[in-house]
């Protein structure tokens, strides 16, 4: 059970990281298109 919780938190961390990377890329793209 403890192992599953650790796995879940790791997946959540990766998703958050991906979200932030996508956000940065989106802002960069908007900056270039102006």
From TrEMBL:
This is Putative cytoplasmic protein. It comes from Bacillus cereus (strain ATCC 10987 / NRS 248).
